[in-house]
Design a protein that fits this description.
This protein is of the alpha+beta class. The chain has two domains: about 100 residues, 3-Layer(aba) Sandwich (Glutaredoxin), CATH 3.40.30.10; about 70 residues, AhpD-like, CATH 1.20.1290.10. The protein is built from seven helices and four strands; from the N terminus they run E-H-E-H-H-E-E-H-H-H-H. The protein has a four-stranded mixed sheet with strand order 2-1-3-4. A hairpin with a 2-residue loop joins strand 3 and strand 4. Helix 5 runs antiparallel to helix 6 and helix 5 runs parallel beside helix 7. The protein is elongated. The two termini are about 45 Å apart.
Length: about 200
């Protein structure tokens, strides 16, 4: 079984969502590693902050750090051979490095599709940095503005449908509890009112 090992630079976690600014590469790369696992590969990931011993015990990684310092991180190893250093490869690059066919027979999932999906997900998550990043990536990959506009419109429709469904749920709760004073509901995220606490 092919083994892929990733040695990350010092950081609090591999998701990239717990710092003051979201690094769009980290959640994207985490998803790519999960995809590799789904293809039957063994994936191991180490963080210099939390697992320094793994860096010390791996001779190849230790030598790279001794000669280049932390600038060589992240390191990606495939079967104990460094195949990428200093960057997080895109999924198609990662697949090629690991010897995996990125587009399985009959698959229509490509880099262009992935970027359009990411744009829709960014809108659904209200993540401005994610949208900016994937918009740029999509344009550089050759996605037309018209196709991006279609992806945005689809994301808007899905998001509006979900909002409408949630409002219907809220209306159902209110209708079932008419004897209580629930009509003056404080906004959630701004922190609530003097009488209510925020849920966020």
């Amino acid at each position: 079984m092919t083994r892929v090992q990733v040695f990350d630079p010092p950081m609090c976690c591999s998701t990239g969502v717990c710092g003051p600014q979201v690094d769009p590469q980290l959640p994207r790369f985490a998803a790519d590693l999960r995809w590799l696992e789904q293809q039957g590969l063994e994936v191991q990931r180490y963080n210099l902050t939390h697992q320094p011993q793994a860096f010390v015990q791996n001779t190849i990684v230790n030598q790279a750090l001794m000669s280049e310092g932390e600038k060589c991180l992240p390191l990606v190893l495939v079967d104990d051979e460094i195949v990428s250093r200093g960057v997080y490869p895109e999924r198609d690059e990662l697949a090629a490095l690991a010897g995996v066919d990125f587009l399985a027979e009959g698959s229509r999932y490509s880099t262009l599709v992935a970027e359009l999906v990411a744009i829709g997900a960014a809108i659904g998550a209200n993540c401005e940095p994610c949208f900016k990043y994937h918009f740029q990536q999509a344009r550089e990959a050759g996605v037309t503005r018209d196709d991006i506009a279609r992806a945005v419109a689809t994301a808007r429709e899905v998001k509006q449908a979900a909002t409408k469904a949630m409002l219907n749920v809220a209306g159902g709760y209110l209708a079932a509890d008419r004897d209580t004073e629930l009509l003056q509901i404080a906004p959630c995220c701004p922190g609530g009112s003097d009488q209510t606490e925020s849920c966020c």
